[in-house]
Amino acid sequence: MGFVAPWLLLALPALPLIWWLLRVTPPAPRRQAFPALRLLRDLPAPEETPARTPWWLLLLRLAAAALIVLGLSRPVWGPGAAAQGDGPLLLVVDDGWPSAADWPARAAAAQAALEAAAREGRRAALLTTAPAENGEALRATALMPAEALRARLAALRPKPWAPDRAAALAALQAWVSQNPGGFASLYLADGVEHQAQGDGFTPLAETLTAAGPLTLARAEGRATRLLLPPRAEPDRLHLALRQAPAAMAGEVAVLARTGDGRALARATIPVAAGGEAGEAALDLPIEIRNQITRLEIEGEETAGAAVLLDERFRRRPVGLVGPVEQGASTPLIGPLYYLERALEPYAELRQGGVAPLLSRQLAVMVLADRPLPEGAERAALARWVEEGGTLIRFAGPRLAEAPDPLLPVRLRAGERQLGGALSWEQPQGLAPFADSSPFAGLPTPAEVAISTQVLAEPGPQLSDRTWARLADGTPLVTAEARGAGRIVLFHVTANAEWSNLPLSGLFIDMLRRVVALSSGVAGAEGSQPLAPLETMDGFGRLGPAPGGAGAIPANRFAETAPGPRHPPGWYGVPGEGGERRALNLSASLPAPRALAAPPPGTAFQAIGGVPAERDLGPWLLAAALLLLAADLLLSLVQRGLIGRAARLAALPLLVALASTPAWAQDMPLATRIGYVASEDAGLDETVRQGLVGLSDYVNRRTAAALGEPVAVRPGQDDLSTLPLLYWVITAETPTPAGAAAGALNDFMRQGGIILIDTRGEGSGEGFAPGAAAALQRVTRPLAIPPLAPVSPEHVLTRSFYLLPPELPGRFAGGQVWVSRQEDRANDSVSPVIIGGHDWAGAWAVDARGNNPYAVIPGGARQRTLAYRFGVNLVMYALTGNYKGDQVHVPAILERLGN
Fold first, then answer.
1. Alpha helices by DSSP H, 73-102
2. Where does the secretion signal sit in this chain (predicted)?
């Protein structure tokens, strides 16, 4: 325990003087002879006044005086440990991506150190190690009072990239030269070496030790993990993670989510004791797998624990159609043999006729030397291309003899070959791909040679439709947009008959890029810059890109490492249908390694479990006031000014004052929100924190005055004083019966509102298994009216704030249900509101004023909307449907105008 004003404790030695003053008696009276008084000498005295104050009353007054002195000195219970030394304090904070995993605990440890420095009157400075978002060079703040630094520390957030301790060392050396003299330092390290050859931790720690005592604060027992981009296999996604070695074996759960935050699958990666890596497979049907846009480690909110999946990880359905005769897949010579092996790792391959393939969802159709005579088959294929399909065709003797309209360019009759009419002296190689081609950036191997091809008729649009050329300039690949789709023609066969292109790795890369253009996904045309669309913060949450984020050229995207200029996230072409590419942090980071040993003499402090400081001053002063009130009462009793009846009446008051010093805060007249208690203490605490946070928000934003929320058990506790009841339904929630069901029905009948939360809808799907089934079971004995989704015109969306009908909480995207508007009972106020957005989780505030639960998919906007829904809910519960008339204001004004 510490004291904010310890100098006031000097008043404690004055207690003996107070004792002496309290024991002072008036001077002895002068004796005057008065014989008549002898007549009264033997009469009994009705009461006697003591010559001295009783010892117990003196002790009571001394205790009150001591409590006043102690209260004014402001003792603090559980103060944070002060840094070593007695000079200025330099606070060094690793604020890169690993620190996000336990950022609230780190912030609490740093704030505790500043509070301790403030009590000691020490100045402080702050140095962070992660590069700044605006790209400025790292530098430490100037020395300032510790109280002034607390606001700057509170605004600090982890960055979605690794620290640069070498740059921090340069900033430290510059700061030391400007502030000569010793200082103490507290280093909140993330416990990770961020470069293979070390990242400057040892030189940084040695410089701090040379200037004064160093305290190293780090988290104990927490493994720093990186989730790597998966490897796409024909029938699965291969997951992999890397971590600093952990002493114990464990399992890491990975969630697969869609773009709207819904969890579609969960995979478990085992990690052996002392292991640094783990792998697992995620098996999903192709239709479900293609919906996944994000993988994340469950329970870890860091940029390194999240991976975004773009088109490179999707397996698009591709149909393969060969010549009419059999043998299309014959090894080495079949026209589909090389196509199958080139596309199988990256696409869902389907074979058959044109009509059966078009009857299913298809992104790409590949025709290998397959002419299309006029008829229903060609018409259906043309419509499919117009609607957005991608048709890839390969030339051959049959197509050269019978070209059809579903080609990007007109073809000359016959083919160009060695020794033919349109001959060349030797096989032709490939020309470098143009910057405007989707193949830009791919190497052109010298060993690739073309011996035969079909030629395109020259024309004004031939150059614009050419994606690849031979060394002599003749087109090798041409393409044309048709409606919402496109047609691509390789002017050679799909096997090795006319060229050795199918035998090269370039053939695979070219096919992958063409397939990636399908289904409305625009291609990265050459070096076209990809602008930042959404970027991650240090917690792995997506949000608007910061102002300093820049675009990345498409042909340099693969080699770009995330940083302040290019944060991890989504990049692409703005607008509907534009390409989106994922820039993942873990793809460019080495495997995390444990931090090197600090210099000798370094003190250690564990991060986490920092006790919340409690100011005992107000409680001690309140106790002193109670003792003084008791002293006054006892003094009046001693003087005979209070009778026996008054004493008996005052006794319960004293007991109540002594047992509840903060009685004024718990007056039963205060409006409070209730919640149904469960058998899960952790769940009840989460709900309580949520309602505390909501009550505080309502008190600050409105004229309402809410007290502390109260846990109730229907059927046992009185619900009549509560306007709103929050009820979380889980798979284990018992069905109310008897008195409990009757109490809930009476509560709704008398005007109360029950908010039922299943905590598993929308982006929270999968977080509360069994809750939906339990909802039907639990509500069966309740008199719930017919329900309908919340409409944009419902009073709940405008009772205080104007809100969309989605009404998000910790989760978003689910449906919220209220009673139908035509039910006029209870003035059209819905007695029940049902949803699954975990509003209490979004409202929750811990003892330090932080929001302990992240909103999903995330963003400050979603939490703000959750709080605003809470305000609307409270206003709806307190005032009913009074704003229902305002919904019709436009119609009323129009009628008055007429």
1. none
2. none
Q: Closest by alpha carbon to 671, among 752, 742, 748?
A: 752
Residue 224 pLDDT greater than 60, yes or no: yes
Strand duo 674-676 + 724-728: pairing: parallel
Q: What is the pTM of this model?
A: 0.53
What is the rounded distance in angstroms from the CA atom of residue 453 to the CA atom of residue 499?
Answer: 9
pLDDT of 626 reads: 86
Name 714's bridge partners: 717
Cβ count near 486 (within 10 Å): 20
For residue 391, which phi and psi values (nearest 5 degrees)? -105, 120
User: In this predicted model, which residue has the larger pLDDT, 691 or 264?
Assistant: 691
CA atoms within 13 A on the CB side of 729: 24
- What span, in angstroms and rounded, lies between the C-alpha atoms of 451 and 687? 74
The span from the CA of 157 to the CA of 699, in Å, is: 28
* Tokens, residue 345: 């790792």
CA angle 452, 455, 459 (to 5 degrees): 160
Alpha-carbon gap, residue 536 to 583, rounded angstroms:
10
Distance CA 583, CA 605 (A): 36
In which order are the strands placed within the sheet that holds 144-145?
144-145, 123-128, 89-93, 184-188, 214-219, 603-607
Residues in contact with 29: Cβ distance below 8 Å, sequence separation at least 6, in sequence order = none
Output b/e per residue, 672-694; b: 16+ Cβ within 10 A.
Answer: bbbbbbbeeeebbebbbbbbbbb
- pLDDT confidence band for 398 (50 / 70 / 90): confident
Q: Which of the two residues, 80 and 17, has the higher pLDDT score? A: 17
CATH class assigned to 316-518: alpha beta
Mean pLDDT for all residues in the chain: 82
Query: Which pLDDT score, from 0 to 100, does residue 477 have?
Result: 95
Kindly list the distances between the CA atom of residue 725 and the CA atoms of 24, 679, 699, 719, in Å, as whole numbers in the listed order.
61, 17, 18, 9
Helix (H, G, I), strand (E, B) or coil at 848: coil
pLDDT band at 652 (very low <50, low <70, confident <90, very high): low
What class is the 674-891 domain? alpha beta
Would you state the pLDDT for residue 663? 36
C-alpha closest to that of 608 among 110, 159, 186: 110
Rounded Cα–Cα distance for residues 248 and 221 (Å): 10
Residues 6 or more apart from 58 whose CB is under 8 A from it? 19, 22, 23
CA 91 to chain centre: 27
Predicted confidence at residue 126, as pLDDT, reads 93
Nearest in space to 579 (alpha carbons), one of 588, 571, 590: 571
Residue tagged 């505080």 (tokens): 696
Q: In whole angstroms, what is the distance from residue 195 CA to residue 211 CA?
A: 26
pLDDT digits (tens, 9 = 90+) for 552-576: 987 788 789 999 999 999 998 776 5
Assign a CATH topology to domain 89-222+592-607: Rossmann fold (3.40.50)
Contact call for residues 295 and 254 (beta carbons, < 8 A)? yes
pLDDT tens for each residue of 295-333: 999 888 899 999 999 877 777 788 999 876 555 556 767
Q: Which residue has the higher pLDDT, 468 or 40?
A: 468
Q: Reply yes or no on whether the pLDDT at 640 is more than 80.
A: no
* CA pair distance 430, 447, nearest whole angstrom: 9
How far apart CA 82 and CA 89 sit, in angstroms, is: 10
DSSP 430: B
The DSSP-derived string for 242-292 is: EE---SS-EEEEEEEEETTS-EEEEEEEEE-TT-SEEEEEE---HHHHTTE
**Average pLDDT, integer, range 43-53:** 58
Strand order in the sheet with 390-394: 347-351, 316-321, 364-368, 390-394, 485-490, 475-482, 466-469
| Count of helix runs (H) and strand runs (E) in the chain | 22, 40
